Structures are given as C-alpha cells and as structure tokens.
Amino acid sequence: MNPFYIILSVAALLLIGGIAIYNGLVSGRALVDEAWSGISVQLKRRFDLIPNLVTTVKGYAKHESETLEKVIQLRNAAVYASPLDVSAQAQASAALSQGLRSVFALAENYPDLKANQNFADLQAAVEKIEDDLQNSRRYYNATVRDYNTKCDSFPSNLVAGLFHFSKKMFFELANPEESQNVKISF
Questions:
Q1: Helix 86-106 to helix 65-80 angle, to the nearest 10 degrees?
Q2: Domain that holds residue 71
Q3: For a designed S-S bond to 88, which of 81, 109, 136, 167 qualifies (C-beta 3.0 to 4.6 A apart)?
C-alpha cells in the first residue's frame, strides 16, 4: 500500500474526528445557552407574579410591610442582576426564594389571608414557578456538566482549547446556609 494513501487516510480521519468533536462542543454550548434561557423564563415569570402576591398580602398584613418591602427589594435586585452572570443570578434567586418563604410564613398569622382565593391562587402559582425553576436549574446544571466534561476530556479538550471553548459555571448557591429553612419569628 502506498504510504501517501495511508497518510492521507490518517489525516482524513483526524479531520473528520476534529470536526465531530468541534460540532459536539458547539452543540453542548448551545444546550447550555438554551438551558440558561429556560431559567431566565422561569425567573421572569416569578418576577412578574411577585408584585401581585405582595399587593394581595399587603391588604391583610399592613403592619408586616417590612417583610413585604424586603421581598420587593429582593425581586428588584434579582431583576437587575446581570443575566450573563450565573453567580449573581444564583445569589439573587436564593435570596428571593427566602424572602418568598417569609411571605408565606406571614399567611400563617392571617387565617383570612390563607382563606382568600386570590392569595391561594397566587401561592399555588408561585409554588409551581418555584418547582419549574428548580427543574430548569437541574437541567441547566446537567447541560453544564456534560459540556464541561467535553471541554475537559481528551481529545476534545485539545479542540476546545484550540477554538477557545471555555467551561461554564454551575447554577449553585453561593452560601450553603441559603439552603436551610427560613426561621420566622413574630
């Protein structure tokens, strides 16, 4: 067999393999971006619902306005956190989740509020959004894991380095205490 054909065959295989690895990295990056978009959609739904929830609760819990104002401040901070900064979004989201738990804890002291259909509907909607958001975060983290594994694994790490594919950050809590239950006392 002619050595030229052997070298040509090896070069063709390397080129085809490199193209396949590159396309896999592009696909992985697109999945991460799509998963981040899913988190953004859920966060937007949550941000849009919070003012309605706070308005409903304010009618019943006038003297608890400090808690409600804090939730609005947390919502605004989360809205204005950079959508490209996963860490900032994670911190703002965790703080807002704790604030929402405080609002629902207020409902325990107001039986009329708990019985109010608007509040019940809003609470159910927020709980559904929180579940959807949790699922979106899991999906995002799974796509980041897969993409980062491609970026770190041989031989795809060579292609990733050559074409400047960088690893993505996981959506995680900055502070482990944020995962604990909120303690509310009146």
A1: 160
A2: 14-179
A3: 81
In this prediction, residue 130 carries a pLDDT of 86
Specify if 4 maps to a domain.
no
Question: What number of CA atoms fall less than 13 Å from residue 156's CA on the CB side?
Answer: 20
For the domain that residue 22 is a member of, what is the CATH number?
1.20.1440.20
> How does pLDDT run across 36-58, given as a tens digit for each residue?
999 888 888 888 888 877 777 76
Pair 103, 71: CB distance under 8 Å: yes
Q: What pLDDT does 23 receive?
A: 95
Domain membership flag for residue 2: no
Whether 28 is in a domain gets the answer: yes
Helix extents (H) in 61-116: 65-80, 86-106, 111-115
- Residue at 146 is within a domain: yes
CA 172 – CA 175 distance, rounded (Å): 9
Question: Hey, is 183 helix, strand or coil?
Answer: coil
What pLDDT is stored for residue 112 in this prediction? 65
* Number of structural domains in the chain: 1
What tokens does 3 get?
């050595």
Give the single-character DSSP code of 70.
H
Q: How many CB atoms lie within 10 A of CB 59?
A: 13
pLDDT score at 96: 82
